[in-house]
Amino acid sequence: MSKLFKCMVFCIESKHYISHGFVKHRVALPLVVVFLIAGALQANAVSAVDLKSSAAERFSGAKAQTINISGKVTNEKGEPLVGAFVHVQNENRRALTDANGNYKISVAGENSVLAFSYVGFDILEIKVGDRRTIDAKLTTRNLHMEEVVVIGYGTETRQDLTGSIGTVDMDNLMKAPVGSFDEALAGRIAGVQVSSSDGQPGVGMDITIRGPGSLTQSTAPLYVIDGFPVEDSDNAAINPEEIESINVLKDASATAIYGSRGANGVIIIETKKGKEGKPVITFNSSLGYQQTQKRMEMMSTYEFVKYQLEISKLQSNFVAGSLYTPAELPTTHASYDPEGRTLEDYRTITGTDWQDLIFRNSPVHISNLAIRGGNETTKYAVSGSFFDQEGIILNTGARRYQGRATIDQTISDKLKMGLTANYSQNLRHGQVVNDAGNSFTAYVLYRAWAYRPVSGNPDVDLTEYDDDPDNTNASDIRINPLVSSENEYRKSNSTNFSSNAYVEYAILKNLKLRSRVAVRNTKNRLDLFYNSNTPRGSLLNRSNNQGVNGSFRYTENKGWSNENFLTYNNTYNRYHRLTLMGGFSYQENKSELFGFATQRVPNEELAIYGLGAGQPYSTETGGGEYALMSFFGRANYNFKSKYLLTATMRADGSSKFIKGNQWGYFPSAAFAWNMDKEKFMKAIAAVSSSKLRMSYGLTGNNRISNNGYMPNYGMPLAYSYSFNNGTPTQGIVIERMANRDLTWETTEQLDIGYDLGLYKNRIGLTVDFYNKITRDLLLDADMPISSGFPSVYKNVGTLQNRGWEFTLNTVNIQSESFTWESNFNISFNKNKVLKLADNQNSLYKTMRVGSSIPTLYASRVGYPAGLFYGYIFDGIYQYDDFDSPSPGAYILKKGLPDNGSTDGVQPGDIKYKDLNGDGTINDHDMTIIGNGLPTHMGGFSNNFSYKGLSLNVLLQWSYGNQIYNANRLIFEGNYINMFGVNQYASFADRWTPENPSNTLFKVGGQGPAGLQSTRVLEDGSYLRLKTVSLAYSFPKRLIQPLALTALDLRVSAQNLLTFTNYSGMDPEVSVRNSVLTPGFDYSAYPQARTITFGINATF
Amino acid sequence: MKYRYYFLFALCLFSVSSCDLTKEPLDFLDAPAYYDTAEDLESNLAAVYDKLGHRDVYGQWMLYRMGLEADEGYYARTTPAFGPQVYDFTSSDADIFRHWTALYTGIGRANILLANIDSNPEIDQSVRDRVRGETLFLRGYYYFLLVQYYGGVPLVLEPTSDVNDIHKPRASAPEVYAQILKDMETAEGLVDDIQTLGFGGRVNKSAVRGILARVCLHMAGNPVNDKSKYEQARFWAKKVIDDTDAAHALNPNFSQVFINYAQDIYDIHESIWEVEFRGHGEDAWTEEGGVGYVNGPATTNADIGNTINGVRTTAKLYTAYKEGDLRRDWTIADFTYVNATGAKTFATSTARRDVYTRNSAKYRREYEILLPKRGSVTPQNFALLRFSDVLLMFAEADYEANGGPSPEAIEAVNRVRRRAWSTGIKSVTITNGGSGYTAAPTVTFEGGGGSGAKATATVLGGQVTGVVFDRDAVTGHARGAGYTSAPTITFTGAGTGAMADVEIYKKEEAELNELEIGDFRKTIQDERLRELAFETLRKTDLIRWGIFVFNMKRVGQEILADIPDAHFIRQYNNISDKHLLWPIPATEMSVNRALTQNPKW
User: Fold this and answer.
1) CA B295 to CA B74: how far, in whole Å?
2) How many C-beta neighbours within 10 Å does residue B253 have?
């Protein structure tokens, strides 16, 4: 931290230099201002042309001929550089070095300056002086700084960047055996939180950049794929193998060019294009399998039966299903059987491990084939992929077929065109493990864990029954988890077609017009069918009013967009580089939805095709459109790559708002200073680059329904009324209140960053501090119910995200045969609600666990959003807490609070903290109990290579977040005391008179139902060995006879090891993920451990 | 060069300027389209009615989860442990909030309809007026529920248009009542009469008048105490009673009133206003309710109809009935169902401590005729106003207005009591035990104008010592009905000579005695208990009479004496003054800063 502080002090001290830069190049400022306005008003863009008048005569050389100079140009090792360029500054003279690196040139005088340049090396300037032989030793250019970064509407070298942009190392990312790039993104870029709600195959990741920027609206970043902004990117539709680069725009300077959609950050994805040269065929394929990382340890049959007997004793009479030990009944009982099993007998009886039947080791297969090539004028790429993943839970999986073709054609020096088309089909099939609606007993993992391991009847093998023969009754449906898992029918089939075309025209040498059009079409078909062997379709299920039922839903989303922009690039007086970009775009989007559902389907054998014979009970249609019109501009001023200024402006007009509120303006400005170019820095040999960046700007968020400002009339069937027992009259209601004042949500962000490169950038450090304040939050704000509406979209509330990001890249060892490179990044984000709707202090969210819907989250002014809210678990009541007036009778000692239970408190019962000291527990004792967001997170990636072997190891972590493990409510205490429900093995250690546990209450000691407490709130921190990949590249001499140019074999593993204190299956979980409800775990699909073997071949 | 550049730019601009930023919604229309025809108005009106049948209102929650049964019964389930049903909750209770939400949503819909009702003047004036009348009445009714449970509330009478206009103070209870009267009195002149409609599921003149009587009684009682309203209550009740066109009358058979609801039969003579529930989930509509499912006698038997029984009786209610009052064994089940078969097991003990296990049973699913019966929904309508209530309200208002019971008032009560009185056999007295009885002889009753009595003789030492009437799920025992004179009893077989005298119940026995007339206020209070138990009226009746806390504490003491360790005793012991009103929901308080909380919440 002290290091950091020093850096800050340094920044402040450097102010002098900044202002110096401003004064010296005073001309730049007005230019920037002019072009800001120009960009916004588009019409003035012509002034870009006027500007270049001064640039035309930059070569104004003197003509007098005097001195001849000769010399040799070499690299650092003294090896000659052939064809190096020697140029006399301000004189129109130039020369090239010969085969030995020698050159000859004549100059005007001793004041002339020679400039030596060579591709890949830094330019060296030497004043002639009295020398006549001048040897130049060029140093290898810092490639890292030359790296081209794709930014919005253009590219920039890393050295000349002013914004905070994270670049994904695609080589590393590709080593992860995943089907979608976002699954491998976690831990790779500082400030980018990538998490999944759970591990269901085909479920996308939640990506949050620099903290959640909205409370009730989407916090997903904007994706820009090959230049086209996509708000709802289906990342699974993109084949990771086809990605050329991923850049993450984080600060306002970088994102403001995307205006109203930039507030959540922008992820820019460029796909691979054809390259000049012979056709290159690459084929890679990997095959592997997935397994669970962990399974829950359940009670043994003995422990289970012992537990059942204890539950039975709570009831006055035995329930049939609980009859495990007729030998232990009182002799008067009808079921007393002296020959029957005793509890001890169960020590040797093995029950069914239902997890074994539900979980499986499942295959995963990825194959890619691509042909890329081209000549000077035509470049092409054709590729296709196949991805197939069976889930680690029975009857789950995902599959993708995908193809892409791209062509770039140069028509003339000035004109270039290109076309890309991508088609993908994503199938997600099988049960959704965490989607079972309101009944907590219908979730897949609940069913597997809860199903009893053994029956009391020696002749009953539970695996042979479709439902539990003793426990299925009118109030409780227990379907064999294996049977129900096999019978769930669900298919989601998405097809995604996107295509874009561009024309690039060089109007002038340095003025380019780029115009492009894209179309996108996404269709999804969702088939659901619940036959009589599923909990939702079974007639045994008393709350199933629909019998065998199913539904069909079709959604289509189509959009087109057109973007046109001009880029003007010029350098004045050698040092003043100016880049101006201005343009406009228009985009339209339309979505449609059609669906129906039927119930009491007669022929369930027909499955989804039999829906037509069922009784229709629900039909739905919907649709909406929006349009977005934008004007945008950017001015970059670059003085010797030393001082860099960027200003951007975007004006967005959206049909989502009423006329008058449609336009939003999003400016930003940034300044960067490459200190290493200053003399005082050059003196420090160790420093190879040193850059200070500062940016400030506004961005927006428009993720809101299409016509949110209008009263949304509807006629849902549910709001009807039947008169005279007749066919109901359908009600007309306003489903959502209108708010004609609705407008943009605006985020202002300040970013201060520092990049430091040491020892020729073998060590690279990037530090960023940001402060992001979102105002006029598009908040689904609570209304007083007396208004007639529960909530309305309003621009109220303020949210802050503030944090630090550190990235350290190091080349630890670099020798001829062995290299070790590492990347370490860590980010800290603090989220804080500054203001809610009109003086509101808290926003509560409930969470359904079982039948009760208690409040579990509170978002309060002054605190982070989505904090856990509930009671504080205070251990277990022990004998000491009671007076015992007579043996067996226990009365709580005076002054000790009870737990709010209706039946009084006994030893072994759960205890809560009585916060208000009123002697009992009620909702006045609820408080903030935890935080679902991490204090810091990050990744540590290491690349080792030795000759043909390379090893990549990525560690990823999240620290300081908590998880509400709702599974434990049922499986570590069974708070509803249901019979025949198995428990986690941990509950065997519960409180008994002999075992006075202070963490696990006795059977039936759960206290009042529905209280959410710290008892099941756990530390969710984890450190994970996320990706390990070992590859071997065959030496060229071995593979050349096979016509191969490269051949790699690879073993990769994902989620290999996880270090955590979390007791659940996996700490990467948040099954009801939203800003207001993070970190909730109930029957979550665990993240799989994947191990694959792959081959990469290039012909 | 330059020109080409201009040209290109202009071309692009042109392509954009042809685009515009107006996108109409695809799946809904602009407001005027929804008020364009008479059918549109009906649809808007249906949405206002919709909230009556909402789960959080009469659809389910009020029937068992809000503590409205007060001293009649108790919440029979153990979960949830907190809530208004056990009088252990805070202002953040979800049920209290959802009830509030449902009512204000209904008011909101009414306000929107009232504001737009005349937007198309081409719609027939009479249609608009009728719709206006029903809407005004429903708005008044929702406010009436609000003011009873929460006290004075914000009086919102226009559609909310400004999203920032949210801090609305509470009106006082008298102000809210004044508005209710205004809305309902206007409605009275606009809505149809019940005979025109022919069913009780729509707001009609009789319903408006009867509910106005109820509103006035509440205004006259606590906490508003505007005694002048007794006279007005009397006026409205009398208007219903004397309306010869409407021809309101009691159904001669008390249990049939409720069987009618189960069988979707309208009896507009007795049942003046009902919440309509329809269907059994066999189609796309969701207009079913919870009547019978949450408050009928418990069973999981699918043929009877699944019932969770949320409410059981107190001994206070059970003992409030005299022998011969047929309302007792219909209102409180004297049996339990055998889940597997649906057969009935009759209760044998009437000891106070055993009575508490008896289920509320006014709404019985076994009579439903709409098959198949669904697990958790029923088609049974729920009565909001029955004629017997009007009679009792009249008696009460008349008494309070005049300061003494008039013959008219006494007769009104007697009408209610006579209807409920048995016309069966009161007793059998053995006059001759006979001799030689080796087994119980067959007992038959003949004559007397009635039928249905069934009994078994008891034999001891060769003699008949008495008869025991068979058990009956409706009347308790099969004492028969319709007897105008004593039937003759004969004992056949297994012996000889047994003879007995038979006495039948007489209507006069049902009538108020001097003592009851002398304590007329208490008589009315008890009669309302007997007649209207489990019809959601008790709690607010007790409150307006000012005896809620007292009565509840009293029941608590009774339970303590009857079953000291009863878990439900808590509901009664928890009662304090603050429970006269529910709290204003905490979330509402947090959004509307102009609200003040009720005392002690």
Assistant:
1) 11
2) 17
φ and ψ at residue B126, rounded to 5 degrees:
-65, -35
ipTM of the complex, rounded to two decimals: 0.93
Give B-chain residues touching A717 at CB under 8 angstroms: 284-286
Region of residue B101 (left: phi > 0; alpha: psi -120 to 50; beta: else):
alpha
Phi, psi of B9 (to 5 degrees): -65, -40
**CA-nearest residue of chain B to A511?**
B5
Residues 6+ apart with CB under 8 A from B99: B56, B57, B61, B62, B66, B149
Give the distance from residue B277's alpha carbon to the nearest chain A alpha carbon, in angstroms: 7
What is the amino acid identity at position B345? Answer: T
Residue A66 pLDDT > 90, yes or no? no
pTM higher than 0.90: no
Exposed (0-12), middle (13-18) or buried (19+): which is A510, by Cβ within 10 Å?
middle
pLDDT in tens, A706-743: 888 888 888 888 899 999 999 999 999 998 888 888 88
| Residue of A1091, A1092, A1098, A1093 whose CA lies nearest to A1034 | A1098
Structure tokens at A925: 């004792």
Mind listing the pLDDT tens digit for each residue in A262-306?
899 999 999 988 888 888 899 999 999 999 999 999 999 999 998
Helix ranges, A229-300 (H)? 252-255
User: In a 3-state reduction of DSSP, which class is residue A641?
Assistant: coil
Among A247, A43, A220, CA closest to A153: A247
B160·A737 Cβ contact <8 A:
yes
CA distance A732 to B112: 11
In terms of CA atoms, which chain A residue is nearest residue B12?
A564
Q: Name the helix (H) or strand (E) containing A514.
A: strand A511-530
Say how far apart CA A303 and CA A453 lie, in whole Å.
11
Residues in contact with B25: Cβ distance below 8 Å, sequence separation at least 6, in sequence order:
A624, A706, A707, A710, A712
Contact (CB, 8 A) for B535 and B551: no
E-only strand ranges, B291-375:
311-313, 335-337, 344-346
- CA B37 to chain CA mean position, Å: 34
Average pLDDT over residues B169-191: 97
Res B160 pLDDT > 50: yes
**Interchain pair A924, B90: CB under 8 A:** yes
Could you give the dihedral angle defined by the CA atoms of residues A224, A225, A231 and A236, in that order, rounded to the nearest 10 degrees? -140
What pLDDT digit, counting tens, does each position of A536-585 carry?
A: 888 777 667 788 999 999 999 999 999 999 999 998 888 899 999 999 99
| A1045 confidence band (pLDDT: 50, 70, 90) | confident
Report yes or no: B240 and B246 within 8 Å, Cβ to Cβ. yes
Task: For residue A1007, give the chain B residue with the closest CA.
Answer: B81
Residue A185 and residue A1027: Cα distance in Å, rounded?
Answer: 11
User: Residue B164: its chain A contacts at CB < 8 A?
Assistant: 794, 838
| Interface contact flag, B108 A787, Cβ < 8 Å | yes
pLDDT of residue B83: 87
* pLDDT interval class at B547 (50, 70, 90): very high
CB contact under 8 A, A837 and B591: yes
pLDDT for position A475: 59
Q: What pLDDT, on a 0 to 100 scale, did the predictor assign at position A513?
A: 92
Please, are residues A379 and A408 in contact by the beta-carbon 8 Å criterion? Answer: yes
Q: Looking at the predicted structure, is the pLDDT value of residue B1 above 60?
A: no
Question: What's the 3-state SS for A34-49?
Answer: HHHHHHHHCHHHHHHH
- Smallest Cβ–Cβ distance between A49 and the set B5, B31, B279 belongs to B5
Q: What's the one-letter identity of residue B157? A: L
Q: Which residue type, as a one-letter code, is found at position B4?
A: R
